[in-house]
Every structure is written in structure tokens, then in C-alpha cells.
């Protein structure tokens, strides 16, 4: 497992995972299990890298939030 830095909106989490997609999935599932999850805001994409939050740039792995919710997590959108 590798250490990944996952960022989207107010979400900043460091997590161990096998790859970037699992880092997003595990990080988001962990963050939504916290008591203050109502304050969690996410952007339209997630950025992931192994270098740190300050080094996130165009070389970071990026995934659209819609893909994360629909494909990785299988969650339903609330309206």
C-alpha cells in the first residue's frame, strides 16, 4: 500500500491505499463517517498524489466527482 494525499473542496485526507481510485473511495467513505460530515464540501473533481497537498498540480491524478459517486461508490444523487 502507498500513502496518498486526497483533496477536494474542504476534504484533505492522507490515506493508505492500493491505488489512486481506492484512495479517493476510502478517503471519502472515512470522511463521511465522521460526525462533522455536514461541513464537508467537495469540488467537481478529486486530486490525488503521493507528494503532498502543496505539490498538487497538473501531474496529480484527477477524477470527476460525478464519476466517483456513480462509478466508485455506487451512491445515489440526492435532490
Characterize the structure shown.
The protein is of the alpha+beta class and 79 residues long. The protein has one domain (2-73). Helices cover 28% and strands 29% of the residues. Strand 1 (2-8) and strand 2 form a beta hairpin. The longest helix is centred in the first third of the chain and has 13 residues, at 20-32. It starts with a strand and ends in a 6-residue tail after the last helix. The relative contact order is 0.22.
Sequence-ordered SSE layout with sheet pairings:
Elements: E1 2-8, E2 11-17, H1 20-32, E3 45-49, E4 61-64, H2 65-73
Antiparallel strand pairs: 1-2, 1-3, 3-4
How would you concisely characterize the structure shown here?
By secondary structure, this protein is of the alpha+beta class.
Keywords:
4 strands; single chain; 79 residues
- Element pattern in H and E: EEHEEH
> What's the multimeric state?
single chain
Query: What's the total count of β strands?
Result: 4
The best one-word shape is globular
Strand order in the sheet with the most strands: 2-1-3-4
Radius of gyration: 12 Å
Report the portion of residues in β strands: 25-35%
Main pleated-sheet profile = 4 strands, antiparallel
What is the domain tally? 1
- Detail the poorly predicted runs: none
Q: In which range does the helix fraction lie? A: 25-40%
Alpha-beta content class: alpha+beta
Mean of all residue-level pLDDT scores: 84
What count of helical segments does DSSP give?
A: 2
- How far is the first residue's CA from the last residue's CA? 36 Å
Amino acid at each position: 500500500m502507498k500513502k496518498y494525499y486526497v483533496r477536494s473542496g474542504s476534504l484533505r485526507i492522507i490515506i493508505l491505499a492500493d491505488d489512486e481510485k481506492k484512495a479517493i473511495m476510502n478517503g471519502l467513505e472515512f470522511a463521511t463517517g465522521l460526525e462533522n460530515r455536514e461541513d464537508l464540501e467537495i469540488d467537481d473533481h478529486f486530486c490525488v498524489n503521493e507528494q503532498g497537498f502543496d505539490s498538487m498540480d497538473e501531474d496529480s491524478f484527477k477524477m470527476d466527482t460525478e464519476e466517483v459517486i456513480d462509478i466508485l461508490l455506487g451512491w445515489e444523487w440526492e435532490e
